[in-house]
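Check these lines:
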Amino acid sequence: MRPMECLSEENATRAALNGGCKGKILMCLYSFFGPITLLDVMANTIAYAVGGTWLYIAFTVLHPGSNVFYWIVQDIFGACMCITFLGTIKINAIRVAAILLTVAFFYDIFFVFVTPLLTKHGESIMVNVATSGGPPKASPSWCEKYPSSTECKGGEPLPMLFAIPRVGDYQGGASMLGLGDIVLPGLLLSFASRFDEAKRLMGLVSGGAGRVRNGAGGVSSNKSSWNICCGCGQGGYFGPVVVAYAVGLAMANAAVYLMQMGQPALLYLVPCCLGTFVFMARRNGELNDIWDNPRAIRAADALLFGGRIEAEDEDDVRASSLLMNEGAEMT
């Protein structure tokens, strides 16, 4: 048994051999959780304490969104969900990302802009759901006199989005960004990162320098002003798409202030991110390849996880071999 280990196979087995209820409980715990260390106990205690406190504030405090602890913990929960999702789900072709983002693009527009035309009071279903009731119901003049009135407080954001309360606004409320506006473009960003790293890996394996190579056969320069400005590394797709996401998010925020109403973030994020990726792929001559299961990713997966690259015809086999051989020319 290690010094920091609270439950190990050795002491669980010993307690089970001694018989009794304690031995059965320890053996069940070990079979279900495995070895339990003191750090595990401390981490779970802190996690449940924070989560329990957050739930207590949510159900007992009026308008908990203004509580600093509440909205910070909520945003941490949301970040953990996004990280878990993007670490579990991955796409292997730009075709999948294009279909998914296009459908989400029109879905977002419909529920923000079209549903007010179909509902009785002209309310946006998306905004009402996200804020648990929508914006304040009282008039601005009333809220200016009685800012603490319950009718001057909008609905509280659900824990399925990022929320940052507005400071100094008598109407309360928060700036919100749905988790879907992060994870859906995030799938495209993770694909761009995997594609860049797959090309670098195949270049290194083939004896090259591992720099990203464009479809025309040229090697991107480290001294490119575009790379220096946006931090794109060595000419891959990930950096430009990250910059495009930031631009799209800035456009969505600007539209909120200019139009004084909630905006579908994907209306701005999808054209910026997907459009940037497709434009760069077409410029580099790689659009046909990355549209459906890129050769670089297949080759890297086969190298890292075993297996082989299956080509549909002889031309695909020759193209896969060419990709492997191009790495030797990267200097």
Notes: The radius of gyration is 26 Å. The mean pLDDT is 74. The first strand starts at residue 5 and ends at 7. Residues 104 and 266 are 7 Å apart (CA to CA).
